[in-house]
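1st attempt posting a full record on here, be nice pls
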Amino acid sequence: MRKVVCAITLAAFTLNTLGTDLVLASAEIRLPAVISKTEPIEIDTGQFDIPSYLGYVKDRSQHDPAGRTVIHIQDAHCNYKAQNSIYELIDYLSRTYGASVINLEGGEGQYNLSQFGMIADPGLREKTADYFLKEGVIGGPEFYAVKNPDKVKLWGAEDTKLYRANLDVYRKSLTSKP
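the predicted structure (as tokens):
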């Protein structure tokens, strides 16, 4: 009985992990042509959508009279596969809608990725950034910015002092958790 349960668990895990990747790899994926960055792009939130292999739109609302659009991407921190998916999603949003500013939680002000820029060989720069992505030191947005330095600007949306205070409260609350 134990062997049967183990075999079923292994099969379920394998199909769950590899199944999606195999379907996506075998699917014919057509990405739109590169858009012009010279003209502002307005996004109708009612019509906004993303390909299903990149995720799904959970909620939409249109509140800003100035027409600015915010796209919130739910993040699974330190998950290599999720961070690569975020990279792909940002690439799609950049090419399709002209997204060029990424606001990130946990940071404050403009991000400085110049250390990666010092690596002249693009292949080595990508391998180095990929290593840090696997280690959870950077996320999908930073990985995208390293590989595409002229396409996006990263901006930390936090007040570092408040962010750290909130993080400390969260960590202290974990000591009370059974």
